[in-house]
Amino acid sequence: MAEPQVRIATVDPVWERICTEARAAVQNEPLLGSLIHAGLLHHPTFERALSFRFSLKLASNEMSEQILREIADDAYAQAPYLIAAARADLVAVYERDAACHRLMQPLLFFKGFQALQSYRIAHWLWSEGRKDMAYYVQMRTSEMFGVDIHPAARIGQGVMIDHAHSIVIGETAVVGDNVSMLHSVTLGGTGKEEEDRHPKIGNGVLIGAGAKVLGNIRVGDNSRIAAGSVVLNEVPPCKTVAGVPARIVGDAGCSQPSVSMDHLLEK
Q1: Are 151 and 121 in contact (CB under 8 A)?
Q2: How many CA atoms lie within 13 A of 70 on its CB side?
Q3: Which of 36, 112, 118, 226 falls 20 to 30 Å from 167 in CA-CA distance?
Q4: Cα angle at 26 between 22 and 31, to 5 degrees?
């Protein structure tokens, strides 16, 4: 007689921790009970909670919450890499943002994380040839979160956008894995020609608040861009640039600037 097959339950430690945090939060602040139950505890999985948040935030009189929820559910079902990227982004925020003390916070309260997940669905729509719907998601993401990322831009995993106000990332921009950027960052073009005209940001890069990186230039892996800088030329790996226009002022100071989040320049 054949041995019966044993089904091992799938364990999701990230989602389990989020739910544990959520239950504790309801006890500590009962007035948020309805919000936390609707946003987290009502859902069986991380991706279902992501779909709910996406549809709730981006719905309008022009596009219902139900339609947006169906789009998000379809995206996560067909492209599981979107869920993996969201998890990496969530952990990145938790590990790098000193104001983040629980995994549930970005999912419920941080517009940088939420805007990035909305972009990821828009990018999936774009790659599926549904460009008009992708533009709609881009528009609503900009209206709701103050973050304007073209759906054709390519962004890696483990990305943190801290505070996230007035972020602009252009159509042909590329952002690598494990990048951190603060508010008012622009990854922009230098002309109106339809060509490859936006920056290519390497892995592990830290981009300070208000920095502008313009044109089809490469910012090397594990480099730092100081706050308020305007970068118009290539940046070698593991260097720090600062100023207007930005110039190399030293080494990056560590192996992973985007993780250390150290913005200070050596004197």
Answers
A1: no
A2: 5
A3: 36
A4: 135
Q: Model confidence over 48-80: pLDDT tens digits?
A: 999 999 999 999 999 999 999 999 999 999 999
Provide mean pLDDT across the span 148-169.
97
Give the C-alpha separation, 151 to 64, whole Å.
Answer: 21
Task: Supply 113's token pair.
Answer: 């994380």
pLDDT in tens, 205-237: 999 999 999 999 999 999 999 999 999 999 999
Burial track 225-244 (b if 16+ CB lie within 10 A, e otherwise): bbbebbbeeebeebbbbbee
Give whole-number Cα distances, 37 to 32, 33, 52, in Å.
Answer: 8, 6, 12
Summary mean pLDDT of the chain:
94
Sheet holding 247-251, edge to edge: 160-161, 180-181, 206-207, 224-225, 239-242, 247-251
